[in-house]
Amino acid sequence: MVERVIRLFKNEVTAKLSHFRECINHGDLNDHNILVEPCEPASGDPAFRVSGILDFEDMSYGCYVFEVAIAIMYMMIESRDPVGVGGHVLAGFESVVPLTPAERGALFLLVCGRFCQSLVMAAHSCRLHPENAEYLMITAKTGWRHLQRMLALGRAAVEETWFRTARSYGSGDSV
Q1: What H or E segment, with its residue span, contains residue 97?
Q2: DSSP 8-class letter at 55
Q3: CB-based contacts of 148: which residues, under 8 Å, 6+ apart?
Q4: What is the pLDDT of residues 110-169, one digit of tens each?
Q5: What are the catalytic residues?
Q6: Cα distances (Å, whole numbers) of residue 159 to 84, 105, 166
């Protein structure tokens, strides 16, 4: 799977990198690093807003679309609807920084690439530090399965789910 994602990335994303808008990335937007607080809900459902972020040691120069890909990957790990959650993350991100068509076109492979990066680095780090395996293998608990499912569903199906969900926020009918 990793070799397939690398091949697809080289063939389909590398040439588009110059079309991505650059920024400073946090690089580790996961559920442990995002602070939320309750806010007034528009409906009867509980509502929260982001009140802060923690852990800046993974910051780097990159692109906006990298940041949303990282966040989607981490939220997939925690969600009961791993593919579906990507659309909710995308909607929130695009409420502040809408992605360009080129960035949206690369998002699927960027999320797959982040899964690969995280899973391979975890396996390598585990070999170096087996005493820390429980923490290092958090992504691996479900990550391989999520990556495999994304690849089996294919880019078109996953993107359709993400983009339909993100659009629904604009209509007021979030799924």
Answers
A1: none
A2: -
A3: 1
A4: 999 999 999 999 999 889 998 988 887 888 889 999 999 999 999 999 999 999 999 999
A5: 28
A6: 10, 9, 10
